[in-house]
Amino acid sequence: MQHEGTTRPVPTEGRHLAGDRRYLVKPLHKALRVLRIVCESTSHLTLRDVAEIAELPKTTVYRYLHTLTVLEMVDYNPVTETFSAGSGLWWLMQSADPYSRIRHVSAAERRKLRETFNETVNLGVLTGGEVIYLEIVESDRSLRMQAAPGTRDQIHSTALGKALLAFRPRSQWDILLPERLVRKTHNTLVERVDLHAELERVRQIGFAVERGENEDGATCVAAPILDANNVSLAAISISAPDSRMSQQLVAKISASLVEACSRIEQQYNRAL
Length: 272
Known about the structure:
Number of helices: 10
Number of strands: 8
CATH superfamily of the largest domain: GAF domain
Order of helices and strands: HHHHEEHHEEEHHHEEEH
Distance between the termini: 11 Å
Largest sheet: 6 strands, antiparallel
Shape: globular
C-alpha cells in the first residue's frame, strides 16, 4: 500500500511526453497556470494581480478566469473584484482525495460527538489560506448551524481556523493569513496583535472558542488533530446557536473535543 505523500513512478512513455513540448497544449497550460496562481495565493487576487504574476495579457487572463469561474474552479467576488479558489476544486478532489484517511479515522469519533451533544459537528482543514469543510454531521434540531461540505471560510474568524492555525509554526501565521483581516461581525478579531494573542491562548489550552465572530448568534468550539510532530492536520468543531451554548456546555464540549481528537491522533499516527 502506498502512503500519502509518496510519488508514483511515471511510466516511461509519460516521462518522454513530459519533456516533449510538441505535445504541449499552450492555452490549457496557461489556463492551469492561472488556476494554480489563484489557488496558491494566501489572499484573494484581482485580475491585474493574476495577470502580473502569470505575465500574461489581462484580456487573456480574464477569459481564463471567466471560464474557470463558470466551472466553479474559481470564485469571483463582485464587491472586491477579486478571485479565489472555488468549491468545484473540492468536488474534483473527491476522485483523488488527499484527506481520505483523516475522514475515515475520525468518522466514529465525529458520530459519537454528534450523538452526545446533538449539535452540528464539522471536520475542516486549511487550504489556500482558508478553512474548507470536509465533512459535516448536522444536528437534528430545527434550529441548527449549517454549512455544506466543500464550502470555505475565513481562518481568523472561525474556531476551526484558529485551532488549525495555532498549531502550525508561528512563522506561518502571517503567511497563511490574508493581508487584511475582514470583519465578519462586530466581534471579529481584525487586529493582528489580538489574533496572535488569541492563537497563543489556543496553543496553551488546546482548543478554540468563537462566539459570534464569524456569524452573529452562533458559537463554535474546535480542537485540532495533530500529526506526530504536533502540527495540525485537521480540526473538528461543534457549532450551535448562542442560546444553547452556555459556559458549562462549552466547557463540556471543549473537553470532549480534545479527548476525541487525541484518540483520532493516536489511531492516525499509529497507522503511518
